[in-house]
Amino acid sequence: MKYITYVSQAERPYAQDELARLLSHSRARNDADDITGCLVYRYNEDFERGNFLQVLEGPDAAIDDVWRRISSDSRHHTIVVIDEGPVAERMFSDWSMGFRNVDAGDLASAAGYADLGSDAFWDRASGGTLPTALTLLKSFHDGD
Ligand SMILES: Cc1cc2nc3c(=O)[nH]c(=O)nc-3n(C[C@H](O)[C@H](O)[C@H](O)COP(=O)(O)O)c2cc1C
Questions:
Q1: Atom 5, ligand 1: which residue's CA is nearest?
Q2: Could you read off the pLDDT of 8-37 as tens digits, one per residue?
Q3: Could you tell me what percentage of the chain is helix, strand and coil, using 3-state DSSP and rounding each to the nearest 5?
């Protein structure tokens, strides 16, 4: 098994019902493909744009396959892989795709993440220096 974590910019701000549709389709597919993970959406008012942060985990071939679809999906762009690698044990075993629509208040308490969506965030993301991304995602999971 392997996992991949990425951040991206939403093509435009998404309403709750559009996110719900994306999520229910993703959950059904992931269930069939033995993929688990977590998706976070945040609308950044300062920059007037939405960002995604997602971790996917599952069998190597299934991850390659879903990654091909996600990375060519026009609903987002500027996709930056933060982290990827082999995983012996799932981190989100009970989530076909957990979801959080967070706001700045939620993130304020997460060290290093209050700036999600800012230029500083993107600089750090493209430099591959976001070691706490999985920690943040896991905190959503464990706090659920
Ligand atoms: C931010 C984002 C996250 C997504 N996450 C998933 C996912 O976890 N699983 C999945 O199958 N598709 C996901 N998708 C959708 C895929 O890009 C693609 O539209 C879908 O898998 C195609 O499914 P279909 O072949 O059944 O139409 C995501 C799309 C976006 C924009």
A1: 26
A2: 999 999 998 999 999 999 999 999 999 999
A3: 35, 30, 35
The answer to whether the CB of 30 is under 6 A from ligand 1 is yes
Which strands make up the sheet holding 2-10, listed edge to edge? 76-86, 2-10, 49-58, 36-44, 98-102
Q: What are phi and psi of 129, to 5 degrees?
A: -115, 60
Is 2-105+114-141 in CATH node 3.30.365.10? no
Q: Which atom of ligand 1 is nearest to the CA of 69?
A: 17
Give 43's contacts (C-beta < 8 A, 6+ positions apart).
13, 14, 49, 50, 103
pTM: 0.84
- Verify whether ligand 1 is closer than 6 Å to residue 55 (CB atom): no
CA distance 124 to 116: 10
CB 10 within 8 A of CB 52: yes
Tell me the mean pLDDT in the region 61-75. Answer: 98
